[in-house]
Amino acid sequence: MTDTQGQRPTFQSQLKVLEASRDRLARLVGALTPGQIRQQAYPSEWTVADVLSHLGSGAVITRGRLDGDVDMQAVWDEWNAKDPDAQAADALEADAALADRLARLTPDEQDQLRFAMGPMELDLTTFLGLRISEHTLHTWDIAVTFDDTATVPPDAAALIVETLSMMASFAGKPTGADRIFTVRTVEPTRHVEIALRPDGVALAFSEPVEQPDLEVPADALIRLVYGRLDPDHTPPIQASDADLDDLRQAFPGF
């Protein structure tokens, strides 16, 4: 495998994508009835309100980490105690507060901020990329509840696809298979290899091949890695059912 990929996003391009995702979420939530807010979302164990609570608490935690340490459990406890209507309304307010804080970061802060995540230390671009992925995929969790054709928007997909190598290392689960899948995506075009090994899963950008095993929209590859490419939400793609089943088992979601 090689590691050829697109250009690293700028902070301003990330803010633009995050703002667009925030606007999409606000439009979705603004159109929901109290009953729909309490309806089961795409994650089978969560309602729409639960998804919004997760996004809202995530916004509070992200904003807190920009300024230092934050007691994540205390934030989660506070949000879990809210009623569904408050979770929905407060999530949008927390989103707006995070956007305002990000917009006020100075160039020096943008360059110097570092965030511990387990054994890793992330710069601001990498850290914010995780929030973009979280916000986009959970917005999809809500959108697809009411529209089976919902997809990851192209502007977000173009950024998220660049982070899939790191995410696959966290999300992938060994299945006993020992095989490499070659993948070509569109919107944007990327060339990827997914290695299923007895001891783990790896995804890396690669050189183009003439006949890849899978040709998929970038949206579909992203949702595959995040455990959201079930048969009812899979677009027409070039791949066998057996191959897709192997890959779905390797990425069961989280």
Description:
With 254 residues, the protein is an alpha+beta fold. It has 2 domains: 11-150, Four Helix Bundle (Hemerythrin (Met), subunit A) (Up-down Bundle); 164-250, SCP2 sterol-binding domain (Nonspecific Lipid-transfer Protein, Chain A, 2-Layer Sandwich), CATH 3.30.1050.10. It is 53% helix and 13% strand. The strands form 2 sheets. A 4-stranded mixed beta sheet has the order 5-4-3-6. Strand 1 and strand 2 (120-123) form a beta hairpin. Helix 3 runs antiparallel to helix 4, helix 3 (48-66) packs parallel to helix 5 (84-103) and helix 3 packs antiparallel against helix 7. It is globular and about 50 Å long. It starts with 10 loop residues before the first helix and ends with a helix. The model has no long low-confidence stretch (mean pLDDT 94).
Ends apart, CA distance between termini: 26 Å
Number of helical segments with 4 or more residues: 11
What amount of the residues lies in strands?
5-15%
- Biggest beta sheet attributes: 4 strands, mixed
CATH class of the largest domain: Mainly Alpha
Overall domain count: 2
- Could you give me the name of the CATH homologous superfamily of the largest domain? dinb family like domain
The CATH architecture classification of the largest domain is Up-down Bundle
Helical content stands at 40-55%
Low-confidence stretches: none
The CATH topology of the largest domain is what?
Four Helix Bundle (Hemerythrin (Met), subunit A)
Shape: globular
- Overall mean pLDDT stands at 94
